[in-house]
């Protein structure tokens, strides 16, 4: 049985050189176009001709002319090239795909209302990456290397962290339409103390904010007090009173609407942080890049939905 009867006898390197010469029209042009050595191409063509037992090119003064045998096998050779390229692309894609686990630390509100959409998109783009979501309001887990990346609502100050600000998150007073239907809608900030307010228990952030507005209030002014922001969001959604929330959360709380647009509450920054030593990891860097791109995109969509 001749080698021609066995497809596995073909050397793709020889076929590739044959195609380069066929498409360039000469050995010299093929070598120049592809950065190869002309003697190498000539040797490959001669070896393939020996395997086939037939000439592939006739030499002319301007280069080479394909023989009927060369023309007959040209399409099959191009299919071999396409198959070879497909294999190379598949191998490259497999090498570039990332696998492993990244621990992501963030706050309760971001874990519940901001990151789910972003992480779904990450799963679709990088199915080999697993994420462990660490829900905590402290940076200590990142500094202690208990997490790889953190999404935080304050600027990290530690020199061992690399940080990037992603957004400024507007904070708004808000209430459910059912509550407003029962108790009326405040038109000016001074009317807020007359309403049932939802605020923090031990955290004095809201009290300090009222004091800066010239409305000093005590904690007893808040009919419902809770330091857990997810519980506070649930109270808002149930129509328990007027509270304060990041505006991007409102599209996820049906019926809750922003109030008092003239009230200037300082926005809350959103920062992405990673330990400096981990930034060089391809796995961590891929998740970092996805978060840096996805979080602003989700926030922009939520803002549009709130203002619609």
From TrEMBL:
GO terms for molecular function: DNA-binding transcription factor activity; sequence-specific DNA binding. Residues 10-67 form the HTH lysR-type domain. Signal peptide: none annotated. Pfam families: HTH_1 (PF00126), LysR_substrate (PF03466). InterPro entries: LysR-type_TF_proteobact-type (IPR058163), LysR_HTH_N (IPR000847), LysR_subst-bd (IPR005119), WH-like_DNA-bd_sf (IPR036388), WH_DNA-bd_sf (IPR036390). One of its GO terms (biological process) is DNA-templated transcription. The keyword Aminoacyl-tRNA synthetase does not apply. It comes from the Bacteria. The keyword Mitochondrion does not apply. Keywords: DNA-binding, Transcription, Transcription regulation. Belongs to the LysR transcriptional regulatory family. This is LysR family transcriptional regulator. It comes from Ideonella alba. The lineage of its organism: Bacteria, Pseudomonadati, Pseudomonadota, Betaproteobacteria, Burkholderiales.
